[in-house]
Amino acid sequence: MVKLPNGDSLARPQAERRKDSLKPYTKFAEVYDRMGSDRHSIKMTDYCFRIFRRFRIKPINGLDLCCGTGTAAAIFADRGIKMAGLDQSAHMLAVAAKKLGLRGVTLYQKSLPRFKILGQHNSRKTRKFDLVTSFFDSLNYLLTERDLKASFRSVYNHLEPGGWFVFDMNTQEALKVIWSGQVYADARDDIAWVWKNEYNAKKRMAYCHADFFVKTKDHWERFYEMHTERAYPNAVIKRLLREVGFTVKGYYRCFSFENPKWDAYRICAVVQRKI
Ligand SMILES: C[S@@+](CC[C@H](N)C(=O)[O-])C[C@H]1O[C@@H](n2cnc3c(N)ncnc32)[C@H](O)[C@@H]1O
User: Fold this and answer.
1) Domains along the chain?
2) Banded model confidence at residue 13, pLDDT cuts 50, 70, 90
3) Strands 159-170 and 129-134, how do they pair?
4) Fewer CB within 10 Å, N- or C-terminus of the chain?
């Protein structure tokens, strides 16, 4: 149920996708950075460099999973890490390719949970990295424990022994407080949006009904995407990581080095493949 600011409610079955729904990150890709959604990558890469110092990580080859419009990959590449990016959305990757320009970042259009990147020169071997990252609750788009675990396994298989995986995820508290029944809207000169969010506590799933209005030359275009995220308890995330062989080196309230208490909205995990 979406509550409107005037107290009314929009009754709508929680997981109903409107008929005009585009796939997530189709047209949203064109306006993602303009809406400021790329700011998270700037904060996250900053935080990552603090994590690197803390654990003495010196990455050489990195993969940004669910890289979106490529902001994190660009920042890491500018700091000397040879980067690759993976995302399932061709639209996000198109924006990323433009942004990354001549930085030499290879982009792969692939989907989690099971993905395989092969080495160079038609090698049949899986390409290995010493760092994999995934930012801005991208892993919350995996809607079953099975898919989350399979994604962790795919990451594990792409890491060198001793390689690191750093990711953030939304918590149950975030979906409950930030998504549940909230409406987010803004109107600027050339873009406006109305995002109505719903939360199903039993399933720990949140649904964002996102309407966008974008001005192109002399007319406004409207489009709609529905985004679905699922939250996982910290104990489950850590168990799945360990089951695929990772050692959990750090598990934090995101942007800090504190334990995430019940009220944390976002966690950050720092895990390592066995040496
Ligand atoms: C919230 S955006 C985050 C993008 C980028 N990491 C950032 O920080 O700005 C989520 C991204 O995850 C990608 N994504 C979602 N589910 C995916 C899946 N199953 N496989 C690959 N990419 C996926 C989307 O296409 C989108 O680019």
Assistant:
1) 2-6+19-27+173-230 (2.20.25.110), 39-170+233-272 (3.40.50.150)
2) very low
3) parallel
4) C
